[in-house]
Amino acid sequence: MTFFSGFCLHNESELFGDYLDMWRENPYVVAGFSYGAIKALEYTLSATRRIDRLLLLSPAWFVDKERRFIKQQTIFYRKDPTRYRQTFYRNVAYPSNIDLSSYAIESPVEDLQALLTYPWPKEKLEAVAGKGVRIETYLGAKDRIINAEAAHEFFKAYSTSHLFKPFGHLLR
Fold first, then answer.
1. How confident is the model at residue 14 (pLDDT cuts 50, 70, 90)?
2. pTM for this one?
3. What's the pLDDT at 109?
4. Alpha carbon of 164 to those of 97, 98, 117, 137, 145: distances in Å?
5. Which domains does the chain have, with CATH numbers?
């Protein structure tokens, strides 16, 4: 399995054992968490090797956000990246109290801008599905990062989409 990490995170795939363990030894599976879901889609789209399954774990879906929100997030991150990340990690972990410090890394503001402005083009999802790749999306209804219910409505047209009511962004 090829895994792509989320914004300001690395090696967090172990947090998703319930979703990934059965696929870890499968070279034909690509997965990504949050910002990593965008990277996983782009990788799968351009891959020349065989890929059977694309797993999107809490994809960074901000299509419904206004420009003002995106601008504010960028300003806050530039002003105090440490404080921004601390708040971000709490929101990612909610409703659990999982300590994400062992997975924490610094990421450039350009990564934040990329994930906040990614349009999730339906043509790309259709192209991936057209390659015979099965797309699965996993979302938590108590997500404090994205509007999971709106994302679920979008992704269910292109994937098998699961919305878990009691879970947040970490799908716990």
1. very high
2. 0.97
3. 97
4. 18, 18, 25, 11, 15
5. 2-164 (3.40.50.1820)
